[in-house]
Amino acid sequence: MRLGANLAAVTLALAVANAASDSSSSSMAPIEVRGNAFFKKGSDKRFYIRGVDYQPGGTGELVDPLADTEICKRDVENFKELGLNAIRVYTVDNTKDHDECMKMLADAGIYLILDVNTPKASISRFNTECSYNANYLQHVFATVDAFQKYDNLLGFFAGNEVINDKDTTETAPYVKAVVRDMKKYMKAKKYRKIPVGYSAADVAENRVLAAQYFNCGDDEDARIDMLGVNDYSWCGSKTFRTSGYSEKMNLYEGYSVPIFLSEYGCNTMPGAREFGEVSSIFSEKMSSLFSGGLAFEYSMEGNNFGLVEIKGGKVKKLEDFENLKKQYAEAKDPEGDAGYSKDGKPASCPPYDKGTWDADTKLPEMPKDAEAFFKGKTPKPNSLDLETQSNCGGLKDSGDSSAKGGSSSSASSASSGATATAKAESSSSAAPESSSSAAGAYNAARVPLAFYWVLGAASYLI
């Protein structure tokens, strides 16, 4: 009988452990795209993003904030105080483990929007064709492998402000090719349908053309599932009309996938930011097209956009923090479906127009060496030192650590109209040490919780 009791105790302990491990990835309903809105799986209530952009250290010091449990514990408490349901992270290290931080976020009801690039592994504006190579895609796919298992992963950004002025539109086909490759890769791996999008600079000359281009064509895999817009036009005491927000509603009318502000929060006025735009973002003035937004940014970096100041690991909340907290608390989600479009059509592709829109509708073919990742080869995770932008040739086991391309980590520099300094192309990509095969093995090895309870009960009868 003692043997049976001991066995029962062991199996019941295993049951508890299994339940705890289940909660790390299954405590939140995944976000789905329906028409031009977000919904939680199994719910008919729209989901609106109310979040912040999060990259402590900015461009000065590349740190993966989701791999440091102490940083996560510290900052998740502030996320909860702000009333957030989402954060955006620009750069992660896909050799690290992120289970604990992702569980902390899930326990707080917070989703992650993740950029898949890093400053050295991304599409370059200055060497675009070369930067789209098998080594780069290996990095992207390894990041996808590492994060796809988390139910609170809302979606991926395949690029951030790669088009950042009127002269960089020729990069668009390569970014769109990355969208295509990511979506086809996830289909091949039988992952859940995770939204893939693009975060766009608010460039007056081509913002509408870019939005149309990334949502056009017959290949559904090459079309984005969501569009982020980095917009800093609402400054100080401006209004829905004087900020240009009302004009944006006209510009994007009829867009068939969710749009949200992937960065907002102008800082050109003296004093703390009031975040007066929040009341409009979460109102029926915008809800037929927009699904919330992310305030730029959590930590104070060199560009003076922070909600908090971090020194010596200690966090000091600034007036901006309190103002955003108040605005989020007062802004309620619109009721009902809020006018979203259930069955919109993809956009028409903008025609090639030299000097205005230098992007062909024909996309580059995926580099031949990357085909191996669709045939059983596991993408190798690499650290933040990996440099892929100049690796024009075939697949290499590792890249050198010198950055030669035109991208940089973009979490710490503001976009578009916020400052005179344009922000460089996105950074973002990393994932836990687990690759797709490791994640698959983990899921395959999980045993139904009921099995342990049955085994435990049977043990008492021995």
TrEMBL record:
The EC number(s) attached to this protein equal 2.4.1.-
Entry-linked InterPro entries: GH (IPR017853), Glucanosyltransferase (IPR004886)
What residue spans carry the Low complexity bias annotation? 400-438
A GO MF label: 1,3-beta-glucanosyltransferase activity
A Pfam match is Glyco_hydro_72
Q: Which domain of life is it from?
A: Eukaryota
Which segment of the chain is annotated as a signal peptide?
1-19
Q: How does it sit in the membrane?
A: Lipid-anchor; GPI-anchor
Entry keywords, A to Z: Cell wall biogenesis/degradation, Disulfide bond, Glycoprotein, GPI-anchor, Lipoprotein, Membrane, Signal, Transferase
Give the Basic and acidic residues compositional bias ranges. 329-345, 355-374
Q: Where in the cell is it found?
A: Cell envelope; Cell membrane; Membrane
Q: Name one GO cellular component term.
A: plasma membrane
Primary location group = other
**Disordered: where is this region?**
329-438
* Gene Ontology terms describing biological process: fungal-type cell wall (1->3)-beta-D-glucan biosynthetic process; fungal-type cell wall organization
Explain the purpose of this protein.
Splits internally a 1,3-beta-glucan molecule and transfers the newly generated reducing end (the donor) to the non-reducing end of another 1,3-beta-glucan molecule (the acceptor) forming a 1,3-beta linkage, resulting in the elongation of 1,3-beta-glucan chains in the cell wall.
Similarity-based family: Belongs to the glycosyl hydrolase 72 family.
Protein name per Swiss-Prot or TrEMBL: 1,3-beta-glucanosyltransferase
